[in-house]
Amino acid sequence: MKRLDIEALRTLCAIADHGGITRAAERLSLSQSAVSHKIKRLEISIGFALLTRQPGSPLLSQDGQRLLSYARRICILHDEAVLSLSKQPLAGRIRLGMTEDVTSSNLSRILGRFTRLHPNVAVRTHVKQSVILQRELEKGEIDISMMQIFTVDLRPSDTLLFQDTVHWVKAKDMELSFDRVVPFLSYDNDCFFKHWAMGVENSLASGLETVLECASSAGIASAIQSGLGVALLPGRYLTDEMQIIDDLFPPTPELAYILRIGRYSRSEHVQSFAKEIAIGVNSKTNLQIA
């Protein structure tokens, strides 16, 4: 009977979660060759290729995707078993910051499971914009954050949950003229989409005027569909009533949904909590629009 090595399965999960061998190696504190070797041995063991290894193709092969779902469950059960036998239960407090985009029933399930496994760890959460959460992390006011950033701002220590595109959009029946100021819809004054759009490098600051600030993605989507203005919106929020107008504006950076731990928050219970979230939230479909 073929046997699956638990550390090789954990490595496969890390490659999927972090978008490739390079970031997985950084996260696991291993060399790239060590990560590649673990995956190669696993492929030889089961007789299937797990990675496509072709530019432009999905990261994992079909067999890799199939094994990934089992690997996640096996690692979860393995870690639960180890925790149940631990003589030193985790205890402490975790301050979690997250953006509206990641408040979902699935996240509630993850939080509930962690609380059941670690009843002596208290988790406190609040919802704010990414810019504010980053400041709170730097000041040590929160321990961990689930938020959006542009992919160019990714750090090696970040856990990449998934990526998305960002688009300039308007209502299909909205008439857009550059002979006058273009009405712009923003999440609020701390919206990093707004900061980017109003940046000098985009030559748009004088041509955009913020006419609405709304912290809710549903509110922004409704305002777009009502023809109140143009906005920058993640691809997951696009609807048939919206028109993409990327060709009329500067190209936008890609968006990354990440998990980031504060530099002052490296305790075992915080690390364990981060791992639980990374395992439970691993694809675009896992995070539903709130």
Topology overview:
Layout: H1 6-18, H2 21-28, H3 32-46, H4 62-84, E1 92-98, H5 105-117, E2 121-127, H6 130-139, E3 144-150, E4 159-164, E5 166-171, E6 182-186, H7 192-197, E7 208-213, H8 217-225, E8 230-234, E9 242-244, E10 255-261, H9 268-280
Parallel strand pairs: 1-2, 1-3, 6-7, 6-8
Antiparallel strand pairs: 3-10, 4-10, 5-8, 5-9
Helix pairs in contact: 1-2, 1-3, 1-4, 2-3, 5-9
Strand order of the largest sheet: 2-1-3-10-4
Largest sheet report: 5 strands, mixed
| Proportion of residues in β-strands | 15-25%
Envelope shape: globular
**In the CATH hierarchy, what is the class of the largest domain?**
Alpha Beta
Q: Which segments are poorly predicted (pLDDT under 50) over 5 or more consecutive residues?
A: 283-290
Tally of discrete structural domains? 3
Order of helices and strands: HHHHEHEHEEEEHEHEEEH
Mean pLDDT: 86
- What's the Cα radius of gyration? 21 Å
The number of E-state strands comes to 10
Find the CATH superfamily of the largest domain: Periplasmic binding protein-like II
Q: Do you know the CATH topology of the largest domain?
A: D-Maltodextrin-Binding Protein, domain 2
Decide which structural class fits the backbone: alpha/beta
Helix share, percent:
25-40%
| CATH-defined architecture of the largest domain | 3-Layer(aba) Sandwich
General description of the model:
There is one protein chain. The longest helix has 23 residues, at 62-84. 38% of the residues lie in helices and 20% in strands. It is of the alpha/beta class and 290 residues long. The chain folds into three domains: 6-83, Winged helix-like DNA-binding domain superfamily/Winged helix DNA-binding domain (Arc Repressor Mutant, subunit A), CATH 1.10.10; 88-164 and 256-286, Periplasmic binding protein-like II (D-Maltodextrin-Binding Protein, domain 2), CATH 3.40.190; 166-253, Periplasmic binding protein-like II (D-Maltodextrin-Binding Protein, domain 2, 3-Layer(aba) Sandwich), CATH 3.40.190. Strand 1, helix 5 and strand 2 form a beta-alpha-beta unit. Residues 283-290 have low confidence and may be disordered.
